[in-house]
């Protein structure tokens, strides 16, 4: 399968469980001496190895291409002219918590006035597109629901893309956003916040029943995660034939408050992965499901997209996996010293302080 050189991500994603399973068993983050990031993610593992393989095939001389260090953005005008679509991560790029980052409205207006398509992508699955639309509105930003792609929407879109049977149910470990998107897509579901208060009373002979018509378990960030949900999701995945295990993301940490980092969606996914011994299909960043979806929906070439984000292991990898240009902004979780740390192997094409540096165009420097 790999000998074909360039293999589309969607094929690797959708049809190669054996490939991803075997890749996920590789214990080291180094492969034949080359660092492969995100090996714990089978989707990205496949993508990484395919890219690696492509480079090997393409180069003939079998020289591994090492990505050059990121450059400070000096000519924003040139970058803007070179693409037709900007995909923005939200937290750390557009806003921080509930505060808008300086200069964002003017920057988005300028890009729209230059005819650029704007898309907003977030791994946060706690809200639906509609709920995110309200957040943009509250912050005074004119963004339509159609421009917003949250991983809650991606989970429902993925199920639609595989024609998930409408007579099957989805068990949700996650918050309201996932339920809303599943409902909009016409899927039956159970779980979610409703199971947040459920407890298990372990007495002799106790057996938890589960719904045998559950055909998919969707796991996202869940502040009300508990042992009931772990056991229920585990039973569905282990005992219902063909039951899918879908993760909205595997983010290690998230930023619930500005005082520290908090355990992210990856912790809930890890629990279910641990009990089922299965790896999930990841629909959020850095998996390219959403990128493929966007490219199809808007009929755009991925080379005509610039991915703008504040995280290397999700946003920048997402852009690179999709074959897009990438811009790291330092207005979120990544500092310049983190970017330039010798242990960091993820290098965007450009970096700058914040997206409003676009306004100073040719003068934008870090
Ligand atoms: Mg972010």
UniProtKB/TrEMBL annotation:
It is an enzyme of class 3 (hydrolase). GO terms for biological process: photorespiration. It comes from Nelumbo nucifera. This is phosphoglycolate phosphatase. Belongs to the HAD-like hydrolase superfamily. CbbY/CbbZ/Gph/YieH family. InterPro entries: HAD-like_sf (IPR036412), HAD-SF_hydro_IIA (IPR006357), HAD_sf (IPR023214), PGP_euk (IPR006349). It catalyses: 2-phosphoglycolate + H2O = glycolate + phosphate. The keyword Chloroplast applies. It is found in: Plastid, Chloroplast. It comes from the Eukaryota. GO terms for molecular function: phosphatase activity; phosphoglycolate phosphatase activity.
């Amino acid at each position: 399968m790999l000998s074909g050189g360039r293999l589309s991500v969607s094929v690797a994603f959708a049809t190669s469980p054996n490939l991803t399973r075997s890749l996920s068993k590789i214990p080291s983050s180094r492969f034949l001496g080359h660092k492969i990031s995100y090996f714990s993610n089978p989707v990205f593992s496949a993508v990484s190895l395919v890219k690696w393989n492509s480079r090997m095939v393409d180069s003939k001389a079998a020289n591994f291409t090492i990505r050059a260090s990121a450059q400070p953005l000096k000519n924003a005008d040139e970058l803007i002219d070179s693409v037709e679509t900007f995909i923005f991560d939200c937290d750390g790029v557009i806003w921080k918590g509930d505060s808008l980052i300086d200069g964002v409205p003017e920057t988005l207006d300028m890009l729209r006035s230059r005819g650029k398509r704007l898309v907003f992508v977030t791994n946060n699955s706690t809200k639906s597109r509609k709920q995110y639309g309200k957040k943009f509105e509250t912050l005074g930003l004119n963004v339509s629901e159609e421009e917003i792609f949250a991983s809650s929407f991606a989970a429902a879109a993925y199920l639609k893309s595989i024609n998930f049977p409408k007579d099957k149910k989805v068990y949700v470990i996650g918050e309201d956003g996932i339920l809303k998107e599943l409902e909009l897509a016409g899927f039956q579901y159970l779980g979610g916040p409703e199971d947040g208060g459920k407890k298990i009373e372990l007495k002799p002979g106790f057996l938890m029943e589960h719904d045998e018509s559950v055909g998919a378990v969707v796991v996202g960030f869940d502040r009300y995660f508990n042992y009931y949900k772990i056991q229920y999701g585990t039973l569905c995945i282990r005992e219902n034939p063909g039951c899918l295990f879908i993760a909205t993301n595997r983010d290690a940490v998230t930023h619930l408050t500005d005082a520290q980092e908090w355990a992210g969606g990856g912790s809930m996914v890890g629990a279910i992965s641990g009990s089922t011994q299965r790896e999930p299909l990841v629909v959020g960043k850095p998996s390219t499901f959403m990128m493929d979806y966007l490219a199809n929906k808007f009929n755009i070439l991925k080379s005509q997209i610039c991915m703008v984000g504040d995280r290397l292991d999700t946003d920048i990898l997402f852009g690179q996996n999709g074959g897009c240009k990438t811009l790291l902004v330092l207005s979120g979780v990544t500092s310049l010293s983190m970017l330039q740390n010798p242990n960091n192997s993820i290098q965007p094409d450009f970096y700058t302080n914040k997206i409003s540096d676009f306004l100073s165009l040719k003068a934008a420097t870090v």
